[in-house]
Amino acid sequence: MDKKQTLDGLAALSQETRLDVFRLLVQVGAEGMPAGEIGERLGVRQNTMSANLAVLSHAGLIRSKREGRSIRYFADMAGVQGLLGFLMENCCGGAPEMCQPVIAKLTCGC
Fold first, then answer.
1. CA-based angle 105:87:95, to the nearest 5?
2. Between β-strands 62-67 and 33-34, what pairing exists: parallel, antiparallel or unpaired?
3. What is the DSSP code (8-state) at residue 107?
4. Fewest beta carbons less than 10 Å away: which of 57, 64, 75, 90?
């Protein structure tokens, strides 16, 4: 991931609804969630949700899959990995053991 993509990702996450959507999709994992259900869970109108999903998608943080008339959304873990990788690329001045607490916090225990 380059600087522009990182800035797009951070900008996408800097809005409350988009951050909530992203966190929800990370929580549900590989099964993803239909757009309508995301809106219902978060109490967001369809047109507002659609715009927020588009911003997150453009930033490479979520991906979608059409299922008939519905669209299911997923956290794009490759995009998340790229964002975090860019942020931590030169971590700890050459002492990677200093990054272990951060890495442990990010590691899924599931």
1. 70
2. unpaired
3. S
4. 90
Q: Which amino acid makes up residue 77?
A: M
From the number of C-beta atoms within 10 Å of its C-beta (0-12, 13-18, 19+), residue 27 rates as exposed
Per DSSP, 7 falls in state H
Q: What is the pTM of this model?
A: 0.85
Chain segment 81-103, per-residue pLDDT in tens:
899 888 888 777 777 778 777 77
With tokens 């860019």, the residue in question is 86
What is the DSSP-derived secondary structure letter of residue 48?
H
What residues contact 83, with CB distance under 8 A and at least 6 apart? 1, 5, 6, 9, 10, 60, 61
Q: Where are the beta strands (DSSP E) in 1-110?
A: 33-34, 62-67, 70-75
Rg, Å, the chain Cα set = 15
